[in-house]
Amino acid sequence: MTGRNSKILKGRRLALLGSVAVLGAALLSGAPASFNVSPIAPTVAQAADAAQAPAGFADLVAKVKPAVISVRVRIDETTGMGSNDEQSDAGPLQPGSPMEKFFRQFGQRGMRMPQGRQVVTGEGSGFFISADGYAVTNNHVVDHASTVQVKTDDGATYKAKVIGTDPKTDLALIKVDADKSFPFVKFADKAPRVGDWVVAVGNPFGLGGTVTAGIVSARGRDIGSGPYDDYIQIDAPINKGNSGGPAFNVDGNVIGVNTAIFSPSGGSVGIGFDIPSDTAKSVVAQLKEHGKVTRAWMGVQVQPVTAEIADSLGLKKAQGAIVDQPTANSPAAKAGVVAGDVITAIDGKPVKDSRDLARKIGSMAPDTSVKLTLVRDGQIKELTMTLGTMPGERTAMNEHTDESGAQQSGVPHLGLTLAPASDVAGAGGKGVVVVNVNPDGPAAAQGFRAGDVILDVGGRSVGRAADVSKALTEAKASGKHAVLMRVKTADATRFIAVPLEKAS
Q1: What residues are annotated to the active site?
Q2: Against a cut of 0.70, is the pTM above it?
Q3: What is the pLDDT of residues 318-334, one digit of tens each?
Q4: CA–CA gap between residue 260 and residue 150 (Å, rounded)
Q5: What is the dihedral of CA 60, 62, 63, 69, to 10 degrees?
Q6: Parallel/antiparallel/unpaired status of strands 147-151 and 134-137
Q7: How many CA within 13 A on the CB side of residue 173?
Q8: Planar angle of CA 208, 214, 220, nearest 5 degrees
Q9: How wide is the angle at C-alpha 81 spanned by C-alphas 79 and 87, nearest 5°?
Q10: How many CA atoms lie within 13 A of 141 on its CB side?
Q11: How far apart are CA 219 and CA 182, in angstroms?
C-alpha cells in the first residue's frame, strides 16, 4: 500500500503503539492510576459479530471433496476440432457468439502437434452423483472428445464414457465403470437465496481439488447463451478448468454446476455463473434414461411485454409474453392462440416475460396438457393446449422485398414511406411495405428498416398507407400514448410499440 492511504494507516498504527507506550510508562513509574486493570468484557455488538462469523468450511470440504473429479479429454484431428493456436480455448465457442465474452469454454485446453498431427487435450471438472460411477460435467468439457479420463480425489485415474449431452443447458452425463463404489453428492432440493454461502470445488488450471468460497450474488441471470438461461451468479473464485465442477451449500448439497465466468482478462474477477440444481436434476435424469433431452414445444414467436406495449394494450403491468406469430400447425395454433395474445400464466403460474415462458415450456414433457391464461382484446381468456416435441432445428424466416416500382405514399408523423404489399414483388401481398425510413423520425428510433412489412396497427389489418395513418389518428384521439404494430422483418414477425407523443 502506498501514497496517502499508506501514510494514514502508518499514522494509525503509530497512534496505537503510542497509547500502549504511555500506559506502560505509567505502570512502571509507579504513578497513581485512576483506573483498575481488569479483563475487558466483550460488548453486545462484539458478541453478536462473533456469533455470526463463519466457523469455517473444513468439515464441509472433508465431506464433499472426495466426490469431485478432474475430467481430462482428448480431441484429435478426426473430430474436426483442430486449431493452429497453441493455447486455443475456443472449443465449441465460436467467435462473435453471445457467450464468447463470458468465456464459456473455461475448461482449460492446450494443444500439441507431434509430427504434424493435431491433438487437443482439455481439462475440466465434474462430480459423482451415484456410487456406481455416474458423474456430471459440462457439455463443452467433453464436446467432440475421442477419449475421456477422470482423476479422483485420491489420485486414481479411470476411463469414462459419455452417456449423453445437452448443449442447450451445457450439461453432460459421463460414467466410470469400476469394481468399486464411489463417494457421491446430491443435488439440493431447494434454490439458494441471494447472500447464502457457497463453496466451489474443482480443477482450475489443472490444480485438482481446489476449494474456494463466497456467496450467492444473484439469481435468474440471462447471459445470452440460450433460451433457457437461468443462471445462479456466485462470487466464489472459479477459473479455467472449473467447468463442470459443483458449487455446494453449507449442507453439502450441490446448488449449481459451474459453467461460465465473466472476465475481461481471462482470470476470475468474482463473477461466475452456475446452472441451477433443479435444471441439472431434470436434464441429468433424461440423459441417464434416454441419452438425450426431449423438450416440449408450443410453437410461438414471442417477445416480452414492455411498458410501451402494456400501455398500448391497456394492461396494468408490463408482464407476460406477447405472441408475435404462432407457427402454422403448431400446438399453439391448434389451441387457438393468435398474434397479439399476451400469455400471462401457464397452469396458473405467472409468466414474467418471454424468457420465463420458454423456460417453463422447455422444462415440461411433450404431450403434456397445459392451461394457458392470456389477454386478448382486453379480455382474459383460458385455452387448453397439448404440447408437442421440440423440433430438431428451427428455420428462420428469410423473406426479401423488392423496392423497385413501389407506389409511394408519405406518412409524415412516423417518418416512413409506405407502399401496399400487393404492389411490391416478393412482399407477400399482405400489409404495407416500408420503402424508406427517415433517420430522424420516431419510427427509425424504434428500429424500423426499409423492407419491413407492417401487417396491422392497433390490432387492425392494414393494406394501404392511409390505413396506417387512420389507425394512428384514432389511437391518439382515444388518449393512448403508444400504438402497437405487428411487423414482419427479414428474420421474424414481432410487435413494435411506437410512442405517439413523439409523432408530429
Answers
A1: 140, 170, 243
A2: no
A3: 999 999 888 888 999 99
A4: 21
A5: 110
A6: unpaired
A7: 22
A8: 105
A9: 140
A10: 38
A11: 32
